[in-house]
Every structure is written in structure tokens, then in C-alpha cells.
Amino acid sequence: MNNKVYNNRAWLLVLPMLVLVAFSAIIPLMTVVNYSVQDVLGPNASFFTGTEWFRTMLNDSALQAAFGRQILFSLIILTIQIPLGIGIALLMPKKGWQASAVLILITLPLLIPWNVVGSIWQIFTRGDIGLMGWGLRELGINYNITRNAGDAWATIILMDVWHWTPLVAMLCYSGLRSIPEAYYQAARIDRASKWAVFRYIQLPKLTNVLVIAVLLRFMHSFMIYAEPFVLTGGGPGSSTTFLSQSLATMAIGQQDLGPSAAFSIIYFLVILLVSWVFYTTIMHLQKDKNSQGGA
């Protein structure tokens, strides 16, 4: 006989969390979905448009160009920051005061607000008062981020690498520190080279950390807004106008609520889809590798 007493009042303890999730995620998302299928003409004037805004956004040539720039930017960022972060983590001291000092120094860029980062690099790259701009001018290099799209792109990439590579390095460093010393002792007994230790011990053990690092960096780089907006304002022309800036212009500058809501949902689904595909692929590859190793 089951004498267990059930008390549903325990659900009250979960209620604050449910309310918080509803206010922070579900209600705003439902609001955006509601606007995405309407043409809002005023406070009490709107009519149902169905999927018209979605088709309009998907066929917009300016947004397609911004999407291409966003994909290119994210690929470049990941290609640079992941190997560079691993390399920095491998070179960092493992113990002692040197390890603490390096950790503090490497964390500093992460503590700076995004719009301040853009301001710092905007001043840093100026030809009259900025150290980088002045130095390149003295070397005879015609560098100008307001006129040359290549210079603007190179500066934004350099700025992002400076700002966010420390995050990858710290994640990799924590992953390296979690590897048991017995693995390294076995490698020393076998006289394994540094490359062999990295290839067969450190890199496999970093797989889960790298998945997190790539997902975090992809999601953030795909949503980047404040840094390039402060640095270049999206120019010259529209060469550094990314999706988030296009969305802000549409929603705030032009007050096009319906199209911007549809654009927001498409934007969200693209990030969700790419992250899911990447995570699923990595997990399947890891599972196949583990099954082959256990066979």
C-alpha cells in the first residue's frame, strides 16, 4: 500500500523561476511573433499580413548582403580565435604567482564594456592622435578606416580578436588544468614529443571545452553590434554593416515594427539552427570516435 503523502505546494517554490522566465523570454518572444504577422499603422490600427514580412525580409538584397558579411565575419573570427586561444593557453604558466598574474592580465579586455572597446579602438586607429593610426602613417601605410573597407574590416577583426580571444584562452586553460598528471607521466615514460602529447592527450581532452568556446564565440560574433557601430558606424558605405545594425536601424530608426519583428525571428532561427547543427555534428563525431576506441 502506498502511504506516500503528496504535497503540491512544493510547486510554489518553482513559481518565481517560472515568472522570471516568462517575463525575460517567453512574453517578449510572443510579442515579436505577434508583430511579425501584422502591419502596425498606429496604437489601434493594424491588420493581419500572414507571412508577407518574412518573404519580404528573405528577398531583401541589403539584408542578404549583411547576412553574407555576418557569416564571413564569424568564420574569420573562429578561424583566428580558436587556434590562437589554444596556443595562448598552452603557453600560460601552470602554477605559481606567474599563473595568477597572467590570468589577471589576460582577463582585463573581457572586463571592458563593448561600447567602450569601440571607443578605445576608434581613438587608437586615428591618424592624428591614435598610436596605431599614427604609427602606420609614419611607416608610409595609407591606413584609413573611414575610407577604405579593407582597413575597416581588418581593424574590426583585430579589435574582436583582442577583446574575445582571452575568453577562449581561459576556457582552454581550465580544460588543460583538468587533465590528470598521470597522462603526462605516461607520455614522459613513452618519450612522446610535445606534438604527440598535444595531438593524443590535450586536444581530445579539450573537445568539450572547445565546443563551448566555438558556440559562445559564434553566437556572439553573429550578434556583434556595439563595437563595429562605435568604430565605423557600419561604413565606409555599408561594408561593415552587420545584421544586428540593420535590425536596429529598421526597428528603432525607421520604426518598421512588422518587418523588423519578422527579421528578428529569422535572425534568431539562423543562430539556433547553426548552433544546433554544429553541436550535433561534434557530439556525433565524438561518439563515433569513442565507440571505435572501445571496439
UniProtKB/TrEMBL annotation:
GO annotations of cellular component type: plasma membrane
Gene3D superfamilies given in the database record: MetI-like
SUPFAM superfamilies assigned to the protein according to its UniProt record, in alphabetical order: MetI-like
Membrane topology: Multi-pass membrane protein
Keywords, ordered alphabetically: Membrane, Transmembrane, Transmembrane helix, Transport
ABC transmembrane type-1 domain location: 67-278
Superkingdom, natural source: Bacteria
Gene Ontology terms describing biological process: transmembrane transport
Record-annotated membrane-spanning stretches: 12-33, 71-91, 103-124, 152-176, 197-219, 260-279
Principal cellular location given in the protein's record: membrane
Subcellular location(s) per record: Cell membrane
Coiled coil start-end: none
One Pfam short name: BPD_transp_1
Family: Belongs to the binding-protein-dependent transport system permease family.
Protein name according to UniProt: Sugar ABC transporter permease
Naturally occurring in which organism (per UniProt): Halomonas qinghailakensis
